[in-house]
Design brief:
CATH superfamily of the largest domain: Fructose-1,6-Bisphosphatase, subunit A, domain 1
Shape: globular
Structural class: alpha+beta
Number of helices: 8
Mean pLDDT: 91
Low-confidence stretches: none
Strand content: 25-35%
Distance between the termini: 45 Å
Oligomer: single chain
Number of domains: 2
CATH architecture of the largest domain: 2-Layer Sandwich
């Protein structure tokens, strides 16, 4: 299917989660060219009301993704970061698309390539399908029942299934590889990591951290500084499908659709090995 053409309607109720994930993946890919155009032009950012940065890349990508999702599943509400920042409704009901058109805006502005385009489908509080596209490095992760990785150049379409690699998390080794945010860290995160047998600590931006764990390259990612649901939903969907889990500070799976909290997440920990996590809640 040409990159500029929205995918045909998909019946969310009757389609498999893997089929939904493929359609969502195409929506993220469609926004890649606009994001990379803005990246090449090196334009600056404005500040939103909450003080966070927003660029033309955020706005262009969100418009493209919104169009794809509306065409793909017109009956499903769309909750998107920039629309919400402009006063749009946070309430998508029990089933809705959650969109972060440019996760890692600070990484985008720092020009380190560690930013992503994130789209997820949330159903009854859980991210059941999602896609994370890193256009600066041509990497795509997507998942429904199953998690996959593939390489897609900017402007390209989702390749044939023979080019996908299935993802599985790894069993926790005696000493763990931990991931931490490149732009945000805090004393609670440091204290949490100090209690674990950490062999190596790596930094990464945006939702790439979930994907690194899903690939079996790391074991734990704690985050106690503030995030929004659109920051985490797509990566969470990929990690859950790969065999991992994301738990809140009460040891429960991270919940989505928290309208009363303004779609803000509390602290959470992403784990690759669910059995290891059970002993460290």
């Amino acid at each position: 299917m040409p990159q500029g053409m929205p995918s045909p309607d998909i019946d969310i109720a009757s389609s498999s989660r893997d089929a939904i994930a493929r359609a969502i993946a195409r929506a993220t890919l469609a926004a890649g060219p606009a994001v990379m155009e803005e990246y090449a032009w090196e334009k600056g950012a404005r500040s939103k009301a909450d003080g966070s940065p927003v660029t033309a890349a955020d706005e262009r990508a969100e418009k493209i993704i919104h169009g794809w999702l509306e065409r793909m599943a017109p009956s499903i509400p769309i909750v998107a970061e920039e629309a919400c920042a402009a006063g749009g409704s946070l309430d998508g009901g029990t089933r809705f698309f959650l969109v972060d058109p440019l996760d890692g805006t600070r990484e985008f502005l720092a020009r380190n390539g560690e930013f992503t385009i994130n789209v997820a489908l949330v159903d009854r509080g859980a991210p059941v399908a999602g896609a994370v596209y890193a256009p600066a490095s041509d990497r795509l992760w997507f998942a429904g029942e199953t998690a996959f990785f593939c390489v897609v150049r900017v402007g390209g379409d989702l390749p044939e299934e023979t080019h996908w690699r299935r993802l599985r998390t790894r069993a926790a080794p005696p000493r763990l590889v931990a991931l931490a945010s490149r732009s945000h860290c805090d004393p609670d995160t440091e204290a949490f990591l100090a209690e674990l047998p950490i062999a190596e600590r790596r930094s990464a931006g945006s939702s790439l951290k979930f994907c690194v764990i899903a690939e079996g390259e790391a074991d734990v990612y704690p985050r106690f500084a503030p995030t929004m649901e659109w920051d985490t939903a797509a990566g969470d969907a990929v990690l859950r499908a790969a065999g991992g889990l994301v738990l809140d500070t009460g040891g429960r799976p991270l919940l989505y659709g928290k309208v009363s909290a303004g779609l803000r997440n509390g602290g959470f920990v992403a784990w690759g090995d669910a059995n290891f996590a059970a002993g460290h809640r």
